Amino acid sequence: VADFLRFPHQMWEKVLSKVKKAVVFMDSRCAEALHWSGGAALLLEAGARNLKEFSSFEACAENEPKAVFVVSTLLKGRTIDVIKDIISLSHFQYCVVITTVAHSVHLVANNVTTEMEGNPVFEQFEEKLCEWMGNMNYTAEVMHVPAVFAPVSQQLLLTPAFAHLFPLLFPDLEAINTKRPEKKRFGSLVDMDMNSLPVELQLEIKSLAAVLNAMFEATGTREESFAVGPMSRIIAGELAGHPQAKNRRKTAPNKASIIFVDRTMDLTGAVGHHGDNLVEKILTVLEPLPGHVTDIQVDMLELTSLQRTPHSTNILAPGCLAQTQSPAAQALWETMLTSKHKEGVMEVRRHLVEAASKEKLPIKMGLGRVTPEQLRSYVQLFRSRPGMLESHCGVLQLGLATAQTLRHPIMPRWDACLAFERLLLQALGDSDFTAVLRQLLPLMKPRRGEDDTASGSRSREEECGPDELILLLVYLYSLADEAQPSDQDAEEEELEKLERELIGQLTLVITQEQHLSPLLQKLTGCDTPEQLTMEQAHAAAEGLFETLRGLSQTRDHLKQLRSVYTASDGVHQATYRPFLRQVLEEVFHPDRPECPDIEYMSGGLTDLLKTGFSMFMKVTRPHPSDNPLLLVFLVGGVTASELRLIKEAVSTHKPGSQVLVLSTRLLRPTDIAELLFATPRLSPDIGV
Known about the structure:
Blueprint: H1 2-16, E1 23-26, H2 28-35, H3 40-45, E2 50-53, E3 66-71, H4 77-88, E4 94-99, H5 103-109, H6 120-133, E5 139-144, E6 150-153, E7 156-158, H7 170-178, H8 199-218, E8 221-228, H9 230-240, H10 245-251, E9 254-262, H11 268-271, H12 278-285, H13 312-315, H14 327-338, H15 341-358, H16 372-380, H17 386-406, H18 411-428, H19 433-438, H20 466-477, H21 488-511, H22 518-524, H23 534-548, E10 565-566, E11 575-576, H24 579-587, E12 599-600, H25 604-613, E13 629-635, H26 640-653, E14 658-663, H27 669-677
Parallel strand pairs: 1-2, 1-3, 3-4, 4-5, 7-14, 8-9, 9-13, 13-14
Antiparallel strand pairs: 6-7, 8-12, 10-11
Helix pairs in contact: 5-8, 8-9, 12-17, 14-15, 14-17, 15-16, 15-17, 16-17, 18-20, 20-27, 21-23, 24-26
């Protein structure tokens, strides 16, 4: 695992070797990966003169002759336009362009199908750069460095560049089928292959496969790939057939198994509030860092003598969760990320008390329940003490993030959602789906106005709003197949009628909102309630239900792992069974059973021959537990509580095993709603 965790830093070393005396222009996806690897400080320590946003509105002065561009996109279209704009407004004599997209993907994007010597696309672009700088004798370099991984913890690597890559859904299948001849249309998502996908999505998958191949190359690893879910099969197949992988596999000294799992195999776990994890709550209630998918803003005002005013937030830079400089803060972050809520909060208090004791500050020890006021009182001991602040800055930021989350006015909504999800789980075992869905109707009412709160009743912020209602709908529809069967025709008619009613109610709820949440802005395409018409809200609600209807069928193609629900047996309540736990139980089972749903993808022709022979002789196929290291790649995001679940599964079933989680993003519940309803899954932004 250590080699894999070193890989992101090794890639940034290659970038750092180019930045001396340069102004660095970087796009937000690369900036986010750098943020978790040491941040802008790394560039400045390596001799960079400045770091700027990758934007046509940026440029350099006459005394800044060198530029380094770091981008996560293809060197085509909009990306080239921005580079040209910056160069034309500056006075560069030396330009370096670093892209995280491999040259092989650039060839495919330029419709080149033959193998070519060298890097012709990059060489041509070098000439263009000299042209734009105005002198062919100036220096230009173009190269590929796969600096895409963000080492978020000792157990987790994220890929911010692929944060919006998400498994396809039934509306996507319909969109693909409309462009195909009648006889060649696909019956289900499982039937689709790489060539049937839109070009942008093919390029994104090829880019991801190239990045994974580079990681296995750097760590000297021969991987065996397994897949669960249609998108995972396509990605694993692309990695297995990667042209540079064949030679590596012949000589690589280390072995690892990698299981790709589609997020759509378990949406219940991603939108549910049962996680009991502190980090999940922090990510949900605190504002995201601008331009970042994962990290959040911590209000640092309490560590200063500034008065809180409407403008004070713009004076002070926010804190964050990525603490790469402090070993104490890193240890605390690991605990917060992979333990239960209560343990995480206790650990935050312990670290704050230790820091204060170390500095001999007058601390009042509190036992029992940890309160946000108690945490704030410990943090405030460090106020306006620069030396101490610098020494313990990491732990203080995590402490403030915890205190601000625990006392946040929307936290009661988390508990309200959890209570309602538990009720729905029980109801599924007793009623048909329509009857359970009907229980959401009473919740579908607009929230009261700011001044409309009766004394003693819940505040407006505590009430469930449209975001929570949408999450409850996803939760329920993802479990629709678990409901009691009923008269099919009668139920379909009843369900259609109820859905029309819910669409009407949800439209009303959305249009009555005084502020549109980020999710509603993306869903409706409007930034403010004033822009939003009833028709737009209704169209958004209709589109939402169109996607919801297919969510219960995402596991239909599976033979064994088809359910994430255990019904009540009269003694125990009905429970949700995390899909990931079921997969790991199969992987770590002492008898090593062959699970038909965990498909082996690295075999190629040899595996097909074995399948044929297996009809009349015993053939052993590779098993994910064969190798000393297991990588689990969740396509579409992982939750903090799933990281804990993986850690627990390993310590229960196979203590001492090495497991590393890779994923496209660390999820908050509303992220899933955004990825389901407001993300162009078929046409990702690859910079073209």
